[in-house]
Inverse folding.
């Protein structure tokens, strides 16, 4: 499965497309340089395209079952893929993330969330899991962390993104339990050929009224590093907020997205606020959507560039600032802007997948 990679590619395509079509604007804190901004996006995109990351994103959904837990995230790519578009798809993605959070941080009527049960079974500590017969099983291999487990990674078929046969080991994932007190936490590290391609922590805490999950770390292709910080907050009575920050220090680039679901029903409202800033200019997108549709505004360096009108299903209707039709390539780029709002919920869900049992799933 490659939904997580799709989500990352979408946000970068959003920015790249906006800079390509916004070169006439010079408002804002930095003069706009479309060629430079496109190069920034390509470098950031490359950080998520290593072979190690592809293997991780396709195989991590199998880890929970190997550790004796129910999968926190569906093992079906179709269940996670929100690319069908439309307001309905976004609401479905928000509802799925809300359900995931509720399972990780259940509401306790008389006490705060306890991490005491969110740990790897003693029998598995220090064990290395290998792929066999469609599932991961315990092996007698050494090298796993004493306070965690190791899963070997394998090359995948470039078309199906399934593990290729015959098996070709390409690296490993170490999962360690960092839970303490009222905070449940785990670390996920992906290594291939001596290089750490992905390193992040997942932590969860809860009170009587709300719960929060934070995913923070970095990904690299061996050359360019992207730092990410995702924070999902579930108010048990008032909805879900997802905050997603991506920074590429080598390119002086930052991408920030906030999605707010007023509630997780079919009639709830989802607010969208996206901003990209860098040494080559900035672009933003904001607005609201209900299950029946909504309107989003795209600005380049502070100037209104286009509007995106969402519908119940199908692609959004995208027009220029004055209502004029856009060129096909411009329309396609802004379609990807809308796709990223769906993809962000999916990216959060996928990063949760390998740590489900450790975080209490």
């Amino acid at each position: 499965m490659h939904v997580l990679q799709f989500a990352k590619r979408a946000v970068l395509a959003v920015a790249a497309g906006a800079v390509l079509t916004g070169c006439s604007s010079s408002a804002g804190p930095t003069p706009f340089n479309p060629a430079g901004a496109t190069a920034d996006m390509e470098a950031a995109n490359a950080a998520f395209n290593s072979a190690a990351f592809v293997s991780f994103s396709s195989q991590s959904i199998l880890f929970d079952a190997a550790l004796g837990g129910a999968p926190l995230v569906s093992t079906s790519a179709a269940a996670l893929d929100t690319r069908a578009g439309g307001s309905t798809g976004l609401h479905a993605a928000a509802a799925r993330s809300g359900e995931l959070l509720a399972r990780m941080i259940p509401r306790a009527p008389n006490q705060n969330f306890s991490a005491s049960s969110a740990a790897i079974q003693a029998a598995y500590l220090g064990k290395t899991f290998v792929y066999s017969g469609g599932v991961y099983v315990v092996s007698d291999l050494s090298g796993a962390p004493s306070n965690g487990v190791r899963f070997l990674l394998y090359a995948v078929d470039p078309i199906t993104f399934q593990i290729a046969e015959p098996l070709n080991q390409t690296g490993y994932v170490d999962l360690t339990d960092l839970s303490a007190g009222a905070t449940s936490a785990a670390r996920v590290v992906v290594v291939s050929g001596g290089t750490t391609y992905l390193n992040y922590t997942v932590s969860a805490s809860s009170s009587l009224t709300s719960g929060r999950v934070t995913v923070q770390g970095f990904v690299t292709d061996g050359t360019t590093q992207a730092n990410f910080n995702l924070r999902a907050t579930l108010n048990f009575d008032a909805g879900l907020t997802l905050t997603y920050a991506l920074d590429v220090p080598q390119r002086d680039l930052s991408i920030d997205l906030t999605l707010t679901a007023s509630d997780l029903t079919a009639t709830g409202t989802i607010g969208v606020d996206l901003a990209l800033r860098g040494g080559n200019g900035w672009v933003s997108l904001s607005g609201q959507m209900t299950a029946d549709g909504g309107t989003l505004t795209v600005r380049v360096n502070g100037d209104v560039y286009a509007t995106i009108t969402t519908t119940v299903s199908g692609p959004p209707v995208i027009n220029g600032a004055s209502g004029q039709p856009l060129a096909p390539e411009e329309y396609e780029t802004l379609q990807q802007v809308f796709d990223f709002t769906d993809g962000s919920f999916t990216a959060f869900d996928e990063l949760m997948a390998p740590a489900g049992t450790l975080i209490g799933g």
Summary: The first helix runs from residue 3 to 21. Helices lie at 3-21, 34-46, 51-59, 63-66, 77-80, 86-104, 328-352, 356-359. The chain is about 25% helix and 35% strand. Residues 152 and 172 are 4 Å apart (CA to CA).
